[in-house]
Amino acid sequence: TLCDPVSYAYYFYYYYYIFSGIIYFSICFCSCHKTQESLLSSASGYRNYRGILNWCVVMLVLSNARLFLENLLRYGVLVDPIQVISLFLNDPYSWPAACLVIVSNVFIVVALYTERQLSKGSFTELVGFLVHCINLAIILMFPGAVVLLVPSMTPVGGAFVLGTYTILFLKLYSYKDVNMWCRELSTAKAKKLARSLSCPSSQHLDGGDRKVCYPGNLTIRDMYYFVFAPTLCYELNFPRSPKIRMSFLLRRLFEMVSQKNRWMIPVIQSSMKPLEDMDLSRMTERLLRLAVPNHLLWLMFFYWFFHSSMNFTAELLCFGDRQFYKDWWNAETVSYFWQNWNIPVHKWCLRHFYKPLLRKGFSKIVSQSAVFFLSAFFHEYLVSVPLRMFRLWAFMGMMAQLPLAWFVGRFLCGNYGNAAVWISIIIGQPFAVLMYVHDYYVLHHRQEAD
């Protein structure tokens, strides 16, 4: 009975444990809070921002659609397809840009002929080196002289020609080096070269694969495949994809022909007066206005060239290595950006310029500075020669990357470093564009008006 102390204690503890279990169950399974970070905090470890990225794209499309419509209503059609074609063909009876591109085949044949003679022993290494040096020097000087001296050559046509010849220069330089390494391997002068995979010998070949060995690579077919392949570094056996994917090819083709931009023209036109008057506040305002459309144009160019065009070419040629860029948008240092936004050029500089300098005893700082100097030279070459004026803005902009890289790497890190890289891209480029446009306007249009 309940009056019994033992029974009373028994029932008391029985119901106490039942009640305690219910409370514990409620606390454990009905709790709505726990220690955790907000998703936008870096400590949360959350990385899926696809929705925010889509929102940025939608806002970008809507804002620039408004800007496009505003410029169309205010300024009319500024980009006429006939005018674009006339940039290349000022004189319908004289096509200097197209002629120069055709003439480039002469330098390709000379490089191939020289390598064939070297492989047979008809040329000594010294003679072959001198022929290659002369051929490469003419590749840079000849089109530049034509662009400067031929009046019918337009700035756009000149830039296209010089870009084509610069790519050919880098390709033929790599072609010369790799074949030289192959001759060194064949004569046992450099048995342990790290570059030996570029020119495989019999021990590097798999039984089922048909690989080309030196000098079997010295053919017209092999040379022109390399000339058109989306790479600057030559190999005897490039990785190949099994077949051409038509759907992939058509998507890249659609992306190539669908990207246009016309927003910078009104801003540049309205910037001439502040630049002439040296109005610093108005110049700064125009620079900031130009920064956004210039940056969008640069991003569109990056996607069009490094993704759409190069993937289109690679798919057409069954070229297997499609790593034309890495995640440069996550760069926390300037050096990381330059190493990852243009992989073909980075590989060429690393393989044919930076590492050879290190092997010759130069320090890393000197070698890196030399790479930036070479890049600065080509940037200035591709801008100043077509415009027929030498202002060194592109050269100084590239050389300024050295102290900027030191500063960002030394004092900034993480998100701050990434923000500094983005600011340098967004602000630095439109500044150089304004300087060149101003100088070109003063040199040509204002003189004509006077």
Automatic annotation (TrEMBL):
GO biological process, one term: triglyceride biosynthetic process
Primary site of residence: endoplasmic reticulum
Pathway where this protein functions: Lipid metabolism; glycerolipid metabolism
GO annotation, cellular component aspect: endoplasmic reticulum membrane
Active site positions: H379
Keywords: Acyltransferase, Endoplasmic reticulum, Membrane, Transferase, Transmembrane, Transmembrane helix
Transmembrane intervals: 12-32, 52-73, 93-114, 126-150, 156-173, 287-306, 390-407, 419-437
Topology class, membrane: Multi-pass membrane protein
Catalysed reaction equations from the record: 1-(9Z-octadecenoyl)-glycerol + (9Z)-octadecenoyl-CoA = 1,2-di-(9Z-octadecenoyl)-glycerol + CoA; hexadecane-1,2-diol + 2 hexadecanoyl-CoA = 1,2-O,O-dihexadecanoyl-1,2-hexadecanediol + 2 CoA; 13-cis-retinol + hexadecanoyl-CoA = 13-cis-retinyl hexadecanoate + CoA; 1-O-(9Z-octadecyl)-3-(9Z-octadecenoyl)-glycerol + (9Z)-octadecenoyl-CoA = 1-O-(9Z-octadecenyl)-2,3-di-(9Z-octadecenoyl)glycerol + CoA
UniProt xrefs under InterPro entries: Diacylglycerol_acylTrfase1 (IPR027251), MBOAT_fam (IPR004299), Oat_ACAT_DAG_ARE (IPR014371)
Annotated compartments: Endoplasmic reticulum membrane
GO molecular function ontology, one term from the record: diacylglycerol O-acyltransferase activity
Complexes and interactors: Homodimer or homotetramer; both forms have similar enzymatic activities.
Similarity comment: family membership: Belongs to the membrane-bound acyltransferase family. Sterol o-acyltransferase subfamily.
Protein name: O-acyltransferase
Species for this entry: Mastacembelus armatus (zig-zag eel)
Lineage, broadest ranks: Eukaryota, Metazoa, Chordata, Craniata, Vertebrata
